[in-house]
Amino acid sequence: MAIVEVFTDEYFMREALKEAQKALAIGEVPVGAVVVANNRIIARAHNQTEKLTDATAHAEMLAVTAAANFLGSKYLTECTLYVTLEPCVMCAGALHWVQLSKLVFGASDVQRGYGLIKSPILHSKTEIVRGVKEEESRTLINTFFKSIRD
Amino acid sequence: MAIVEVFTDEYFMREALKEAQKALAIGEVPVGAVVVANNRIIARAHNQTEKLTDATAHAEMLAVTAAANFLGSKYLTECTLYVTLEPCVMCAGALHWVQLSKLVFGASDVQRGYGLIKSPILHSKTEIVRGVKEEESRTLINTFFKSIRD
């Protein structure tokens, strides 16, 4: 019997995509995130800026705060954040403060992504993986903005 | 009788300093903030990263979320944020999202301030005033870090 590698980046990004779907279903910009420690999802969140009337209620901010709460630690040094869209500057700044171990994101954000900033924002120890389930992540976003325009 | 200008930047920064004092009293890095709309303080907050076990619980983040909640609006386009220390990248990113009208800060943060970043982070319409009650703001921070070292 072949050994099946279950806990891949794709696996956890699918979970983040489920969160993004929840956002889409309630009319939010569909971005989802999960925080994983030791192959266990310790926090899930989706964008809730409209629901909470709070422009800072991005999926990453909510997920990071929930993960820190779960762990009882300010730092996520043993954690991976999976998020369907490249984090913005605010969220990347938050990921710096929590000293995130690894960041995995789906689609790039060419308008608001932290990668547009010329200086490094993430913590120097944070490993970065880009483009996991990129197409699905981008399709969700495009679906949302098309629905707004129509 | 002379007309006394009460609602100056110095006046509101004194209120932010009172918040910073509250942080100092409970062992937090002493940074305080208030949000003002139409000369009225609509939100007050101080750094609570230790108390909330949340590295993102900076005074500005808490104040901005509280102000948005008070106004029932995601945007703080008619608001001024007074904060005793120059915002970090995360907080400056948040101030961008809320489209803050005016930012007034006390001491510069030469280690973590958003001004260290080469790209603009704040919203293009945000007016910026630096150095209001700078010495008092810096003294508070220095007092805190000296107490930690001793």
UniProtKB/TrEMBL annotation, chains A, B:
Catalytic activity: adenosine(34) in tRNA + H2O + H(+) = inosine(34) in tRNA + NH4(+)
Keywords: Hydrolase, Metal-binding, tRNA processing, Zinc
EC top class, as a word: hydrolase
EC number(s) reported in the record: 3.5.4.33
GO molecular function: tRNA-specific adenosine-34 deaminase activity; zinc ion binding
UniProt keyword tRNA processing present: yes
Record bears the keyword Hydrolase: yes
Function: Catalyzes the deamination of adenosine to inosine at the wobble position 34 of tRNA(Arg2).
Protein family (similarity comment): Belongs to the cytidine and deoxycytidylate deaminase family. ADAT2 subfamily.
Subunit structure: Homodimer.
Name of the molecule in the record: tRNA-specific adenosine deaminase
